[in-house]
């Protein structure tokens, strides 16, 4: 596969998250270069394995969805990734397609701060609601989404991604974001 480099990533900083790790920034990815694209793909594959998004899926998401990265300001390493798309049936709703924090940094509150920074930006874009699905066995993610952020479990979908892959469908009203 060959992808032509377009231009450098615009520094559209959504929010600064200063913490123990360093000067963290949330970026809304509006363009990309091949190096950044590869780092985003590698990050997703490292977290999700074969289920991670490849270049063929990520490029259209950057161009037509919302892709956010969390990283230290002057470093190349991606610490968090979020991929969202607009709901076709309800244009005030977005769907959180992929969301992850680097495994070795999980449990430090970064997931909460990253997602709330994203939600503030989505609210500014006019979104009213965010939805997602989560594996019913993923207790840390459920605790983050439901208990810390305020998502509500709307239903449980059996075999969502095939036999034995049960998911909660969760929603969050963005008017709760301050």
* Oligomeric state: single chain
Could you estimate the helical fraction of the residues in percent? 25-40%
Estimated share of beta-strand residues: 25-35%
Alpha carbon gyration radius: 16 Å
What's the layout of helices and strands?
Elements: E1 13-18, E2 23-29, H1 34-48, H2 55-64, E3 66-72, E4 78-86, E5 93-101, H3 110-124, E6 129-135, H4 139-149, E7 152-157, E8 167-173
Parallel strand pairs: 5-6
Antiparallel strand pairs: 1-2, 2-3, 3-4, 4-5, 6-8, 7-8
Helix pairs in contact: 3-4
Can you describe what's shown?
The chain has 178 residues and is of the alpha+beta class. The chain has a single domain (13-176), classed as Gcn5-related N-acetyltransferase (GNAT) (Aminopeptidase). It is built from four helices and eight strands; from the N terminus they run E-E-H-H-E-E-E-H-E-H-E-E. It is globular, with a radius of gyration of 16 Å.
